[in-house]
Specification:
Elements: E1 2-10, H1 13-24, H2 27-36, E2 48-60, E3 65-76, E4 82-88, E5 94-101, E6 106-112, E7 118-124, H3 155-162, H4 194-209, H5 214-223, H6 230-243
């Protein structure tokens, strides 16, 4: 897998308000709130925006490139013990909620399964840092960004990029084609964040079960399901089809 962020920006002002109103009106968001409130009481209107980013990107291989527009909205409460990630994707939006009980050190995860049912899982964790991702990659912030401009991108420029560094942009050491520990030719340093650590596990899974193993891809998608990184968004798109075969 290779990827490139064409352009993007942090959402602020009227654009941010418009995006928030849009996702809050969607049935998936409403259903997520309803299910989370069965276990913990909170006012969704009081959640603050920790991340709001819109971008265009391409992801794929030398043989096929998927161009897409996406946005990532990450909402949290004051002490960040409650978090909701809403990632707009071309085929099916990704939404996940998590709550952290500081007394029990219990992390409860809410995510959608087949037929729009919500799966609830509770795990013991050491701290709230495990709620979502621990470090964000560096991203372009162009105030003049316009959604969907990848359509007019020069194909030759893309082709020359695909043949370059195999690590995903943003400093990744293990996410991307030919990126990771030897014998891979690129990256191989200390993982920069939780998404990068998931890619380490994915490489090891391929080493054990063969490249393009569907269950390895499904495990990778599950590993990054709460991550707010652009790399995680790309992983959800690129590996979804093969993972469905597991």
């Amino acid at each position: 897998m290779k990827g490139k962020i064409y352009d993007g920006k942090i959402l602020v002002g009227d654009e941010l308000i418009s995006q928030l109103n849009k996702i809050k009106s969607r049935d998936k968001f409403k259903k997520m709130i309803e299910n989370m409130k069965l276990n913990v009481q909170f006012n969704p209107d009081e959640l603050k925006v920790k991340k709001a980013y819109a971008f265009d990107a391409g992801i794929g291989s030398n043989d096929m490139v998927i161009n897409f527009s996406s946005s990532i909205i990450y909402l949290v409460n004051t002490d960040e013990s409650i978090g909701i990630l809403y990632n707009e994707l071309p085929m099916d939006d990704h939404i996940i909620g998590r709550t952290f009980d500081k007394v029990k050190n219990a992390l409860t995860t809410y995510d959608f399964k087949e037929k729009d049912t919500i799966n609830v899982i509770e795990n013991n964790v050491e701290n709230v840092a495990e709620l979502f991702n621990d470090y964000e990659e560096e991203l372009p912030n162009n105030p003049d960004y316009i959604k969907g401009k990848f359509i007019s991108k020069n194909g030759l420029g893309l082709s020359s990029w695909w043949n370059g560094d195999g690590c995903l942009p943003g400093g990744y050491q293990h996410c991307g084609g030919n990126c990771g520990y030897p014998p891979r030719k690129h990256g191989g340093g200390t993982p920069i964040n939780a998404t990068d650590r998931c890619c380490v596990g994915h490489d090891r899974c391929y080493a054990n079960f063969g490249n393009n193993d569907p269950c390895c891809d499904k495990t990778l998608i599950n590993c990054v399901k709460g991550h707010t990184t652009v790399a995680a968004a790309g992983i959800r798109i690129y590996f979804k089809r093969n993972a469905s075969r597991c």
